[in-house]
Amino acid sequence: MNAILGMSDLLKETQLDPTQREYVDRCRRAGSNLLSLVNDILDLSKIESGRVELEKIPFDLEDLVAKTIDLLAPRTHMKGIRLSAFIAPQVSLRLIGDPVRLQQILVNLIGNAVKFTERGEVVVTVMPHENGQPGHLRFDVADTGIGIPASKLETIFDNFTQAEASTTRRFGGTGLGLGIARKLVQCMQGSLTVRSTVGEGSTFSFDVVFVINGQPEPLRTIVAAAPHRREDSGARAKLLVAEDSEDNRFLVEAYLSDQAFDLRFVENGEEACHLFEVEKFDLVIMDVQMPVMDGLIATESIRAFERQHSRARTPILALTADALVGDSERSQAAGCDGHIAKPVSKEELVSAIRGALFHCSKSSS
Q1: What is the number of other CB atoms lying within 10 angstroms of the CB of residue 284?
Q2: What angle do CA 194, 171, 110 make, to 5 degrees?
Q3: Is 245 exposed, middle or buried (0-12, 13-18, 19+ CB in 10 A)?
Q4: Residue 336 in 3-state DSSP?
Q5: Among 10, 140, 165, residue whose Cα is nearest residue 65
Q6: Model's pTM, two decimal places?
Q7: What is the DSSP letter of 233?
Q8: Are strands 94-97 and 57-60 parallel, antiparallel or unpaired?
Q9: Residues in a beta bridge with 206
Q10: Which one of 72, 78, 149, 325 has the minimum C-beta count within 10 Å?
Q11: C-alpha distances out from residue 319 to 242, 286, 288, 304, 338, Å
Q12: What is the pLDDT of residues 35-51, one digit of tens each?
C-alpha cells in the first residue's frame, strides 16, 4: 500500500491529460478506501481480542482538535459546508492520555458527520463533564445532515451496519467506523451515544477521563521551526536509507529528489551497519522488517558502535509498517529517535526528517 499510494501521488504530479488524471484520481481513491478497510479490520480485531493498550503521554488538547479539523477541512470545503470546533474555557488543555486513540475517535465521528451532511455545518464541542471531575471531558459532534431513524439509533454501532441498505451505495464506507469509535471510547472508560432527528441532523456524544498535566510541552514550537532552520543553513544532509523493498526505495528517492539531501541506499540492516561504520551520515532511515538483519537489531548495533568510538549520536528514524501500540516504544528502546508508519506521504517523511535534523543540531549546539 505504501508503494501504490505513493506512486499514485507522484504520478499525479507529472504532465497528464484529463483522462489520465481521472484514472490516477480513481486509483488513488480506491487505494485509500482499501487502506481504510484494512486499518478498520485490524483495529476491530485488536479491540475484540483485548489487545488495545492505551498510552499515557502528555498532549495538548487544543493542538489535537485543531489538527483534526485541518485534516478533515478539505472534505467540508469540497461540499460547501462549515466545520468548526469550540473548547469551553473551563477545559484544561494540557492533558495526559492517549492522543492517537482520541484523534481516531474524533476522525471517525467527524468524518461520518461530514459524509452525511450535504448542507449546513458540523460542529465539535468540548466541555467539562457534568459530574465536575477534573479531566473528565465530554465531546459533542453535531451535524445538520440527513439524520437517523429512531429504530436505527443502536444498530448503527453494529459492525458492517449502516442506517439504511442504500447508504453504502450512496455514501460508501464499511460500516465499521462507529463500532470502532464506541469500542475505543469504552476502552477509555467512557460511553458513546447518539441523538438524531431525520432530516435535521445528528449529535454523537462521548466522554473520556484524562489526567491534567501542569507541565507545558515545547514540541509544537520545535516542529514548526524545524523546516526553516535546516533550509536556512544551506547544507546538504547526507542520509542513509535501509529498505529491502525496491519499490519503497524508489518511492523514498522520488519523495526526496527535490530536497537538499544526499541519499545512500542499502537493502538490509547488516549493510546499513557496515556502511555507517565507514561513512559519516547526518540521519538514518531504518526499515524494521528486513532480511539478514532487521532494523531494530541494526539500530542497536549502530548505537553500540557510536558508544565504542565516542561518536556523536546520529538521528535514526524507523520507517515501518509496524503501527501497533507498543511498536513505537520498541523502536525507541532499540535507539530510534522517531517512528514513522507506512504508508507515508511525502509531506510526512520530509517533515519527520527535517524535524529530526533540527532537533539534533539544536542538541549539539
Answers
A1: 26
A2: 40
A3: middle
A4: coil
A5: 140
A6: 0.54
A7: H
A8: antiparallel
A9: 139, 192
A10: 78
A11: 9, 6, 7, 21, 9
A12: 666 666 666 666 666 66
